[in-house]
Specification:
The structure is a homodimer. Chain A is α/β, with parallel strands linked by helices and about 375 residues long. Helix content of chain A is about 40%, strand content about 15%. Chains A, B: One of its GO terms (biological process) is glycine biosynthetic process, by transamination of glyoxylate.
Amino acid sequence: MFLDQTYLFTPGPTPIPNRVNAAMAQPMIGHRSPDFSVLIEDVANRLKPVFGTKHPVLALTSSGTSALEAAVVNTVSEGEDAVVIVAGSFGDRLATIAENYGVNVHRLNIEWGKSCTPEQLEAFLDGLASTSVKAVFATFNETSTGVLNPIGALGEVVARKSDALFVVDGVSCIGGVPVDMEKDHIDILVTSSQKALMLPPGLAFVAFSDRGLKAIRECPAKRFYLDLNRYVKAYEEQKSTPFTPAVSLIAGAKEVCSMIEEEGWENVIKRHYLLRDMLRAGIRELGLPLLTSDEDASPTVTAVKSGNIPAPDIQKALKKDFAITIAGGQKDLKGKIFRIGHMGYCTPFDILKVLTALELTLAKFGEEPKLGAAVKKAEEVWVQHV
Amino acid sequence: MFLDQTYLFTPGPTPIPNRVNAAMAQPMIGHRSPDFSVLIEDVANRLKPVFGTKHPVLALTSSGTSALEAAVVNTVSEGEDAVVIVAGSFGDRLATIAENYGVNVHRLNIEWGKSCTPEQLEAFLDGLASTSVKAVFATFNETSTGVLNPIGALGEVVARKSDALFVVDGVSCIGGVPVDMEKDHIDILVTSSQKALMLPPGLAFVAFSDRGLKAIRECPAKRFYLDLNRYVKAYEEQKSTPFTPAVSLIAGAKEVCSMIEEEGWENVIKRHYLLRDMLRAGIRELGLPLLTSDEDASPTVTAVKSGNIPAPDIQKALKKDFAITIAGGQKDLKGKIFRIGHMGYCTPFDILKVLTALELTLAKFGEEPKLGAAVKKAEEVWVQHV
């Protein structure tokens, strides 16, 4: 078939809309030009609702991990205490980064595939009552397991039980879930471009509260490229960036803002939950076990456990027969699950596509044929939203 | 006139070829896919001649400053001694980054607009004979002044007079100048995508010698996103990157490699020197003073001092009347010079374009009209190469 007809269902990178590609291919502009200042101010303001913040959202030219590193090195320093909620490989990465910089990390380990409950966090903080915890780090959406943590409830616990900053890795959900930094008590919220924000990888975004901004300003940790003070200062004083930004990706971000506004931010969120619910209904119909409970289920990525057929075999067959790319498991879950991303430029038809391919694949592997069955279940969910 | 007919002559970002834009707009692929491994290996190998190295060239998702920071935090640690040649604002930035991390920086200050001679470096190192210098940092092409430092001669001095690593910021010239890391005794060589490499900003490239690689491996400095060990390991073991890379920019880099190979790497270099010589001949004809001597002149960026008309006024007029963007001076040179970038996707016709605009602009400001005169001088240079 057409070799350019490929279907990307990884939990990032995600497909790029044509109009975003077109925006990125406009003539390059200088990053010290008035045109660029207009562009970056536009994007910084129009992303506010997506991050649930009143402050402009700043862009770093780098990928998600550097956003996590920025969240660490702008809030905690060597020798200070921090709590990191670890419920999967990205929580682990946050903890590893902080440990790398000599922070005293207290890991709140949660079983992979489950969310962190407010009660668990409260008990953990109680156990650290005699420690001065500078910051609590949480992964909003654990990409490795498809779990959405109850970030508002966790933020409430942090605010009630401690003076710690609440720093949130929103990498694989911001742009697909509701968030309100003030209500959710979030001080720093970071994400990257290649997930729900419909852009290629290469940009990280940072939002902050008044308190988060104060912490950034006062943090003595050594950093240069990831020193958020420099980004705040360049933006406030010159509507600019401290270092050469990924101009074309920021031009793409402007187009993404238009797309979100045209669809309506509330509708964007609803779409992501619809995609999740359609996919889960279809997967259940196929008899494949879901890794997470409905309560914990992420609206942007779904993890499916191996049934009779090993998950990696399904992953390979989808790639070979249908040019569909999904993701496997990471670390402890390697070989045990496959993960389907459904965020950003993803529609209900795309969910039907991946379910159809799964129906055909299971039949090919000798399972009892259920052609059309998963699609039917997904449509039954969809019809309630049409 | 056509609003999309804009002319970018800044020393980065530079114009993007249409075919590179098209390559970047191909369907997004997963960064953990075999397709991506093929892509990154292809780029890593095909960039070798451009960096004058036998090792694969690694890509970081970030801009030029982070490449400088990577060069620092992977070679020197807090409390160690390093020499930084400072002949402009980018040498100053290198020194500032190293100082930020607690390195004992010995600044070899050179008058802005002049190159660092091997004799100056040798005398400076002699003065530090009792100090154990871990690394000497040099800016290959000082973007702020349009000076190309004699990097091979400087490398020879470093190798002869010390055990120090020779770490080179090649940001605004790699892709337009000849370099041979072995002959030039360079241990680490970094650049970014948006200069002579014809890509949008967002990628940094790092090349290293055997000795550079050993230094990276042994460096105890704290870093995470910019830890080059992670990049080397991910490439060697899996033909991958440790963190999500800017996939679309790397797809663009592959197309750039094709363009360089089609033109021929030797011809690419010759073109850059031709562009420089044409521009300087034209500027001289207009009676505008050049900042640098012919010996020091960069093949990628040319700085012109204010004559009767202030440089910023010329810069503004080019923008307003011709949609031509050039750059101004930085720090001490602010308001005193303008800078014209001529690297990457730039042809002799582009040089005639900017000279024509200067002829018209000077006439508009009341100077004795020299319409066609600078173009003629530039053509006289060109004709010798046709």
